[in-house]
Amino acid sequence: MVQLSPQIIFSVNVNGALGKTFQASFTYTNSQWPALNNVAPLGGTLFESTNTFAFNVTSGYGIPASNVVITVNGAVATNVVLTGSMNNWNVSYPYLQPNMLYTIVATVTDVNGNVATTTKSFDTFSPANYTWEAEDFDYNGGNYIDNPQTNAYLALSASVNVDTYQVNFGGKDLYRPNGMDTEINGDVIRPQYNGTGDSDYSIGYFSAGSWANYTRHYPAGSYNIYARLASGGTATTCTLSRVISGWGTTTQTTNLLGAFNVPFTAWESYNYIPLEDNFGNLVAVTFNGSTNTLQLGRPASASSDCNANFLMLVPVFALNSSLNGTNLVMSFPTQQGFNYQVQYKNNLTDPAWTPVGSNLPGNNLTMSATNPAVSQTRFYRVQIH
Question: Distance between CA 356 and CA 383 in Å, rounded?
Fold first, then answer.
């Protein structure tokens, strides 16, 4: 329960015998004032894949429905769902989208002007998204481990100028014996580390001009890429490139994919940072399932070092269609915790969209819906909720 009711605090000083002073404090909470309960998601963890933000609010004085306000990423939501009464509302916002970052502020005001509020920041990224650790760079001249378990690269050496290049190294070698600073990670622990007994590590001193290579069979598809990064100096920049020739040698050619623009927070105070182009647009990177080497770098001109925890592929949502006899098959990626409804219009000016079949619950796999191809022109969309 999140108790956010106003309080009245009394403090009493009593001068006793022999010059002693006795102090007592009393805190009084009026149970009639609004209280927020059962807020979810609570934030503070990663990968909270859900389509709904919800809470319960109670008030002895009563809260008009119009006084329940939810702000989603800075915009006041106009489609909040309330059930119950002025004294006990169940509140939900069932319109969260997958693979997003959210900051939601819930504010309620009773009929007497008493206010309760809470702010929650969380993500709806899928725990099934492909991730790799910043400290799991290539070893021994271009060697790699596909889909490693936690701490799979422990104690593996890196070949300098082939697997990594560290400038002005002044850090530690707690995870890897050389090649790049590796330290105990200060970020939120992710589910794959719970109960394993393994420590989570990160690159703790990623200096300007440094780079590290990551070779994998990245899964086929088109993805946006996020990195979990932090900077305690100033706002800074990291880059991501694809090694297109010279992999495993000291002479490598790279193709720049985009940049991670890291805000100034504090060392080990991490944020999800998307890979962007020069105009601030998300970069879509396509893999065909074969081996690729990605290179995380720090431009020599960058203003501050950074900490690097892990990188993540987020599927780019795309509605693909194909003909199967006289039927049109629409396929799309899904995420657990969300529902998907394929809809169509014969003309964009039609007043409403027509559903194709029923809602499909996401399962982190590609799903499809089938519709007879009976029209020369038909427009389709997928509604996610």
Answer: 11
Q: Distance between CA 126 and CA 110 in Å, rounded?
A: 37
Place of tokens 């009929």: 111
Tally of residues, the chain = 385
Tell me the pairing of strands 164-165 and 182-184: unpaired
- Residues 270/311, Cβ–Cβ less than 8 Å: no
Give, for all 385 residues of the chain, the pLDDT tens digit: 344 444 444 444 545 444 444 455 554 556 789 999 999 999 989 999 999 999 999 999 999 999 999 999 999 999 999 999 999 999 999 999 999 999 999 999 999 999 999 999 999 999 999 999 999 999 999 999 998 999 999 999 999 999 999 887 677 899 999 989 999 999 998 988 988 999 999 999 898 899 999 999 999 999 999 999 999 989 999 999 999 999 999 999 999 999 999 999 999 999 999 999 999 999 999 999 999 999 999 998 867 889 999 999 999 988 888 888 888 898 888 988 889 999 999 999 999 999 998 899 999 888 898 888 887 788 989 998 8
Task: Give the C-alpha distances (Å, rounded to integers) separating 275 from 94, 99, 164, 317.
Answer: 28, 14, 21, 16
What's the CA gap between 122 and 46, in Å, rounded? Answer: 7
The residue with tokens 């899904």 is 334
Q: Compute the distance between CA of residue 280 and CA of residue 368 in angstroms, rounded to an integer.
A: 32
Cα R_g (the chain), whole angstroms: 26
The whole-model pTM stands at 0.85
- Looking at the DSSP assignment, which residues form a beta bridge with residue 84? 89
Contacts of 146 (CB under 8 A, 6+ apart): 216, 217
Burial of residue 41, with CB atoms counted within 10 A of its CB: 0-12 exposed, 13-18 middle, 19 or more buried: buried
Which amino acid is residue 364, in one-letter code?
N
Fill in the DSSP letter of residue 220.
S
Nearest by Cα to 365 from 183, 219, 236: 219
Name the residue with tokens 């990160």.
202
For residue 333, is the peptide bond before it cis, meaning its omega torsion is within 30 degrees of 0?
no
